[in-house]
Write a structure and sequence with these properties.
- The protein has 263 residues and is an alpha+beta fold.
- Helix content is 27%, strand content 52%.
- It has helices at 2-41, 87-94, 97-105, 211-225; strands at 44-49, 58-65, 70-82, 107-120, 127-149, 155-179, 183-204, 233-237, 241-262.
- The chain has an eight-stranded antiparallel barrel.
- Strand 6 and strand 7 form a beta hairpin.
- The longest helix has 40 residues, at 2-41.
């Protein structure tokens, strides 16, 4: 009798353990499935760029998951007025001491809108994606010093201000990771874009400039701006003003990380 009771007890314990393990596996599978389905139902994602903050650039974006393959996104980015970002990099590319002085003295602000259509390989706003995009950007520049030599042989300066507008198209390659049920990490791996630019940086003189002063100012500006490979520029100088006109190709690159909240 004792042996029979012991055998029954072991059988019940073993069966209960196996049943418990089976329930745990099933519950886990059900939880994972339900979690993923719940994640898919949350089609809106608000994001903040993390890497751009290091450059005083505040970038926010909203993404709407349309279906398994496609999503649409709009981004707004702005840099409040201050020193020129990437000043060291721009200085190295320009390789001109006079241009360095302009960078040190000038103030700069920026804003842009970006529209993109994302094509996901994994689906529902997850995994590797390819995103053709369009960007409209405005660059405001103030207190740009234009230097020249006066008829008396002294160094004179007039301050210029202006705006440059750009329209570019590109392709962003990235991947978006699921962090729990609501958080996402968006990695912009590489996003080159190219397009056109237009604008000017104009300085007005309070006094009429002589022919010699105009030539000095024109030569100074041409030495600085016409040798910069980054942009196409034209210099115009008359008795009352000096204008650096930007009109030509424009290129840029997107890369970095953003953190998002899905709802």
């Amino acid at each position: 009798m004792k042996r029979a009771f012991l055998t029954l007890a072991i059988a019940l314990i073993t069966t209960g353990t196996l049943f418990s393990q089976e329930r745990t596996v099933q519950d886990t599978d059900t939880y994972v499935t339900d979690s993923l389905e719940l994640y898919k139902q949350r089609k809106n994602i608000l994001k903040l760029s993390l890497t751009s903050l290091a450059f005083r650039n505040f970038q926010f974006s909203y993404e709407r998951v349309l279906n398994k393959t496609f999503s649409a996104s709009i981004s707004y980015s702005f840099i409040p007025e201050g020193n020129v970002p990437f000043e060291g990099l721009i200085s190295n590319l320009a390789d001109d001491e006079d241009f360095d002085d302009i960078l040190d003295s000038s103030s700069f602000s920026y804003n842009s809108f970006t529209l993109e259509l994302r094509i996901y390989t994994k689906g529902h706003g997850r995994g590797l994606y390819f995103a053709p995009f369009y960007r409209n950007a405005n660059y405001d520049i103030k207190d740009v010093p234009y230097d020249f030599t006066s008829d008396e042989g002294t160094s004179e300066e007039i301050d210029a201000s202006g705006e440059i507008k750009t329209n570019t198209f590109g392709l962003l390659i990235g991947t978006q990771f699921k962090l729990g049920n609501r958080m996402v990490l968006d990695w912009w791996i590489l996003g080159p874009h190219i397009g056109t630019s237009s604008g000017n940086v104009l300085a007005t003189s309070n006094e009429s400039l002589s022919i010699n002063e105009q030539n000095s100012l024109r030569n100074e500006l041409e030495d600085i701006f016409l040798d910069i490979d980054l942009i196409d520029t034209e210099v115009e100088v008359d008795a009352n003003s000096a204008n650096v006109i930007v009109d030509g190709p424009w290129a840029g690159l997107r890369a970095g990380f953003s953190l998002g909240y899905r709802f």
